[in-house]
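Possible race condition, two jobs.
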Amino acid sequence: MNTKKLGLGILDTIVKVVFIIIVAMLIIKYAKVAYNYGYHIFNQTAVSSGTGREVTVTISEGDSVGQIADKLAEVGLITDKFLFKLQEMFSEYHGMEQPGTYTLSTAMTPEEMLSIMSGGIKNGEESSDKDGALEEGAAEETEVTEETQETEEVGNSEESNGN
């Protein structure tokens, strides 16, 4: 009887240890998966480097993010549909995808693709290259004006020192 209890006790201990090992292995495995997704949501990479391969994709009216992810995965623009959905959810272009036909490249990150598919709209405001060019031109004009004023001030102070 004592031997039977001892055998059952050892068997019970072995089962508990095996269970704990299996649980620990599952936790480690899924922690790695979670870390990988978390890392790639914010550190986006393109499918290929260099110039990549250009692909035309058509987004229809009412396409969900899942359907867009399916289309992008079919043509090789993304490698993980679920990751793309998460990246879209956490991007500034969430829910702003517009229907249309787009030429995208495998060298683009998901954020760049979303920017194009949203029509360049950021947080409800339209951004365009013209606005950026005007801002740059205005900044250059300000710098030239400041340089001209400094030159005039130096010239005026030299004239007053010479008199």
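Job #2 (started ~2 s after job #1):
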Amino acid sequence: MTEKNPTDTVQRETALNKALIAVFVVFGLNGLVFASWAARIPAAAQDLGIGAAGVGLLLLFSAIGSVTALPLAGSVAQRIGTAGTVRAGGITTSAASLIIAAGLYLGSIPLTAVGLLIFGVGIAGWDVAMNLEGADVERRLGRNIMPKFHGAFSGGSFVGALIGAGLSALGISLSLHLLAILTVVCIAVLIVPRNFLQLSHAVHGTDGTGAAVKPSRFGAWKEGRTLLIGVVVLGAALTEGAANDWVAKATVDGLGSSESAGAVMFATFVAAMTLTRWFGARLIDRMGRVPALRICMGASLVGLLLFVLAPNLPLAALGAVLWGIGAALGFPMGMSAAGEDPAHAAARVSVVSTIGYSAFFIGPPVLGFLGEHWGIRNSLLVVGAAMLLSIIFAPAAAEQKKVSIQEP
């Protein structure tokens, strides 16, 4: 038996701590970029002169970009590493923000749609890579940390929403807002991922004889458990995504409030989700993923109903809080479940992410179309069906036994 070198142990712990901080920052930046757009969707609708159905179709372009890129993101991360994929995604997203800003400034719907399509591609690669790195860090730490990573995303979204509300109140255009954000992001994504673990995720599992087995690129699409985890994440993603896309506009249209009030309502939702993600890991540790998931989705359903049926802003805000609490843990628990086995993490996270992000493909146009006929707030009731799906299939996300791996 060889003794562990204390110096090597310290170096590994130092590298892990640096990676931990880097993943937090990258998740936060991702949320900041996303909220910079989501919190000011009403402003974009006004700049382009479109209604709820038009916004829904416009958001569809972002979803198409994401759903197209997600199945390939795992393979890209295996080839160029998670750090390289985050950099590529961040730069792509920044370039897309520049196109979106130009489209809004010119009042061009086609140019804005192209920008959102590219935006979706960049966010998709960035998302899968940061979740892969997060799952790797979580596995090496030996405790639930993924909800806190997603809490950093929500925290970045909260900051982005507050910035959006402030700039909206000051009359600053969304075009200038996006230009400022993309400058910060471009610099940050080139620097922060340097502290990632920089390990290849193309690790191999072992068969019954101990021989290494390289997982099939598309094999994860044939795994029943992985597909069911995807359904759980689909419900959670639609629950979260519907709020991201429509809470601000539903507040403006459904309650006759100002654009600033809509941005604040979105910030309220995000704040509740952020706090739950930060402290929710304790709930998962005590109860396990399945009970925690079911409790959260139940709270989210109650919050959704209250938000839709509330006659005034205070009650709607209470509904947004419950909605945010409930929507907090589904997505990160799904990512943890998909990334438990590092030998298959890249493929499974890509599959689960693809299924989950299809909620953003289906949700915007459906909710936008229904919003034209029922009103945006009432159309959100269909999200309750997705919440029930997550509750029903929650057992798929249950913790699995440790697996044997060999890293090259």
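Confidence is low (pLDDT under 50) at residues 200-213, 403-408.
Logs attached separately.
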